[in-house]
Amino acid sequence: MAFLVKKFGGTSVGTIDRIKHVAKTLCAARKAGDDIVVVVSAMSGETNKLVAMAREVMPGTVDVRELDVLLATGEQVTIALLSMALKELGCDARSYTGAQVKVLTDSSHSKARIVSIDNEPIMSDIAAGRIVVVAGFQGVDEGGNITTLGRGGSDTSAVALAAALKADECQIYTDVDGVYTTDPRVESRARRLDRITFEEMLEMASLGSKVLQIRAVEFAGKYNVPLRVLSSFKPGQGTLITYDDEENEMEQALVSGIAFNRDEAQVTVSGVADKPGIAYAILGPIAELNIEVDVILQNIGENGLTDFTFTVHRDDYAKVMAFLSERKDDFGADSIIGNDRIVKLSIVGVGMRSHAGIASKMFQALSEAGINLRMITTSEIKISVVIDENYLELGVRALHEKFELAEEDSA
Amino acid sequence: MAFLVKKFGGTSVGTIDRIKHVAKTLCAARKAGDDIVVVVSAMSGETNKLVAMAREVMPGTVDVRELDVLLATGEQVTIALLSMALKELGCDARSYTGAQVKVLTDSSHSKARIVSIDNEPIMSDIAAGRIVVVAGFQGVDEGGNITTLGRGGSDTSAVALAAALKADECQIYTDVDGVYTTDPRVESRARRLDRITFEEMLEMASLGSKVLQIRAVEFAGKYNVPLRVLSSFKPGQGTLITYDDEENEMEQALVSGIAFNRDEAQVTVSGVADKPGIAYAILGPIAELNIEVDVILQNIGENGLTDFTFTVHRDDYAKVMAFLSERKDDFGADSIIGNDRIVKLSIVGVGMRSHAGIASKMFQALSEAGINLRMITTSEIKISVVIDENYLELGVRALHEKFELAEEDSA
């Protein structure tokens, strides 16, 4: 018996049959004694359909206030249908839009941030034994205008509700059954993690394990809401994301997972003056182009000159190269060197905070596999290298092996 | 320059192109100086689509609270798209759901009645020069639950808004360009009426001229909101529905229109005792079967016996006949006689209140056309006859001619 906030994404409620299936799961949990608040997204495809309609009406810059009014209908359809499906199974339920439970947000339409939630109606329904069904992704500002949290915001809605309601756990149902030590499509022996810390999850997520919205993980970490990733299609315990407070259990794992990102491209501005302001002079205009920079690296210079290297998404590579090549004289650079055939490979683990030698163990594994390291960066709980894209799979498997992450052979 | 509430139904906003067309009309009116509140329905077909989804989830009795949550999304989509279309044309606009302008209703889900409306946000937008776009058909009860007014309720929303905002006129845009003296498909010389009274409109509507929702007309009459029916596709003045306060102008028309109803069937319970309670004994059980009775007629009896006649919709005819035939001994009736090949034909006009001889003029016209009258009933402003269905078109044309309702020949 626990008080749970469960979130089902668009795929999990994508058809009437799937909505009925989710209702069945929820009813069983309710009958087993759990108190349940469900957060749902729009049925898959609905949001895209609504956006397409908006674009047809306003081909230029769409009005964000009205876009939010339009998009909010997607989740409203789902909450009504899921509540009906629950009632049809004899499980009492009640739906709420974001506005109805006063998911108060700021007024940044299409990317609003949650300020507070009104617990009162939800808790009185829970006390009455009802399953409460809340529309994810949406809220309302001080002026009563409908807002949305941006794509994937339903995860954030669920975590915010779990925090406000002081639920025991926030369970995110997805199409994967948990967080893995690495991508099982690259390493078939990848193992589902029973637990992972918020920080590790953030590093894993930003590095390409697209299981959860980063904002939701940050939010869960901030309010210390235990977060669990589960499959909506197959039963199982999933992966629990919490703080590293049970020292014994967590300390054993030095490295929790191997993350990677295939979509990177590297740009080096070579032979620039090693003086204050040069990084800003180069990256300022890049930011203004609305291009996100990932890894940034500058080594100690010689003779007052240095090389400044960073990575961007491959889609932005040509634009960045053209832009910098045109202005290289402005920075006094020798040349602009680029490579869009590289990938980023990382190991993530809170264990490395208290253990030395993890980096050298990583470099040893990659060296043994004959992989050349083009760039190296480190943070508290992550070490990343940039390598030639051809060596990605080899590198993942070598690290997975070296850090003994693989599924144990069944006895 | 006037303060207008304009309502556009599902067909008028049925596609993105039609929404753009409506926006263009509204912008032109705004630029000409009118202050405008627009009420819109769901895009045509949307409500049916949502109802079908609900039926798939709850094949039995659908949960009305959740059905209202679901259906309310239909109008919410339209208000967002129309507001965008207005902004795209450079006309400032803002959308509101029923809940956002606190269209407070009772809690009768799917057939709620409006109690009050919050003018404040609308009037401040109007003062700022904006076109205000409000979702029709929906409201919110005291508990914050979403309610709907039932099918066609957008007309009622528009009239209620016009009353609350003290607008100069409530304009209902439909696919016809006004109220006609009779159905132009039956009498090609039928003429669009410039004006008609609320009472006449009510009699016309209930008799089969399905232009406006009866409830909306009642509401407009009660709060004295001038109501205008216009075409959303072709320009024109439409038909204004008001009280008969401009005596001179209105008095000339003895009869405003010829209404008819093809879907009637007649049932006679013959030879029953002419005593108190007999009408209730017969119609009570019919009402319990949820069957609506239209004309009811009982003549003076002879020898303590009388014939009791009423009409029902043809779809209910077989059911009523079977029901009564089975129980005729309960009423002590001789026999149950029925006819489902009859129609009702009526003349409507406030003029008949102050003029004698209208009825005999009607009967003369029908007699001249060789039409036999099976039943006759009268009210203050309406005389109805039941005739054989084969004579309907002939009867309509004869009356249209007799009361000089036809389009005047162009000079």
Key structural traits:
alpha/beta, Carbamate kinase, 411 residues, 20 strands, eight-stranded mixed β-sheet, homodimer, four-stranded antiparallel β-sheet
Short summary of the structure?
By secondary structure, chain A is an alpha/beta fold. In chain A, 36% of the residues lie in helices and 25% in strands. Chain A has a domain at 3-174: Carbamate kinase.
Describe this protein's structure:
- Two copies of one chain form a homodimer.
- Chain A has 411 residues and is α/β, with parallel strands linked by helices.
- Chain A has a domain at 3-174: Carbamate kinase (3-Layer(aba) Sandwich).
- Chain A is 36% helix and 25% strand.
- Chain A contains twelve helices and 20 strands.
- In chain A, the strands form five sheets. Chain A has an eight-stranded mixed sheet, with helices on both faces. A four-stranded antiparallel sheet of chain A has the order 13-18-20-19, sandwiched between helices.
- In chain A, a hairpin with an 8-residue loop joins strand 4 (104-105) and strand 5.
- In chain A, helix 1 packs across helix 3.
- The relative contact order of chain A is 0.10.
> Of all protein chain pairs, which has the greatest interface, and how many residues does each chain bring to it?
A-B, 37 and 37 residues
Number of strands of chain A: 20
Report the radius of gyration of chain A as a whole number of Å: 24 Å
CATH topology of the domain at 3-174 in chain A: Carbamate kinase
Oligomer designation? homodimer
The CATH class of the domain at 3-174 in chain A? Alpha Beta
**Residue share in helix of chain A:** 25-40%
Q: CATH architecture of the domain at 3-174 in chain A, please?
A: 3-Layer(aba) Sandwich
By CATH, the superfamily of the domain at 3-174 in chain A comes out as Acetylglutamate kinase-like
Shape designation of chain A: globular
Number of helices of chain A: 12
Major sheet description of chain A: 8 strands, mixed
Could you report the average pLDDT of chain A, rounded to the nearest whole number? 90
Distance between the termini of chain A: 33 Å
